[in-house]
Amino acid sequence: MLANDPVTQARIDLTAALRSAARHGLNEGVCNHFSMTVPGRPDLFLVNPQGLHWSEIRPGDLVMADFDGKVIEGKYSVEPTAFFIHARIHAGNPRAAVVLHTHMPYATALTSIRDGRIEMCTQNAFRYWDRIAYDDEYAGVALSNDEGERMCRAMAGKPILFLRNHGVIVSGPTVAQTYDDLYYLERAAMVQVLAMQTGRPLHNIDDGLAAFTAKQIEGEAQQAMLHFDSLKRMLDRDAPGWQRLAA
Hints:
Blueprint: H1 6-23, E1 33-38, E2 41-47, E3 63-66, E4 71-73, H2 80-92, E5 98-102, H3 105-111, H4 123-126, E6 132-135, H5 145-155, E7 160-163, E8 167-172, H6 175-196, H7 207-218, H8 221-238
Parallel strand pairs: 6-7
Antiparallel strand pairs: 1-2, 1-5, 2-3, 3-4, 5-8, 7-8
Helix pairs in contact: 1-6, 1-8, 2-5, 3-6, 6-8
């Protein structure tokens, strides 16, 4: 099988993440956005278009845009908050090659309670030790560059941001690694919320052990790649043709 060129592969990977997120219940209507800087063109990014459900998106549906909001390639428009959030984070943090923003239910539930945090009470949570920033100042819908830049600053160099009363942003170097972080972040939040519903206190581990375990998990990039490859195989099985550039 011939390898795809880097931009086509980026389109396929971002599409796989969007479709998998819909299968995992991480999406919300036709809202929220996944984006990735274009390989070889760090001044441009790919993002899902306005109005399409994540489960129906194909690689050719993704829009290529610059950081000023100009569509460079694509037949669809882009919802304004995609520019104001994603463009500013890509522009302000070159390490954030991939930016995934969702209102996924369990993580968002934690943003809606006072002092909501991912607690160090499960092994899935330990991978996020010292990797999450918390923006506790809700400022309305993100409809300005100023708000996107404020979010970027709030990340403070960390790959994950919890937005008070809003949702989460997860960033990373590749689609596979970033989607893996998004998936397990929601799993960690889900188990924590379920545990909190018992009314019993959470059993957090100490900081030293959390840091040690996070370091162990940090080296599992291969596991993220294997996870993502398996998600693509399931899409091949259940949604033949999803990788086609056009319908």
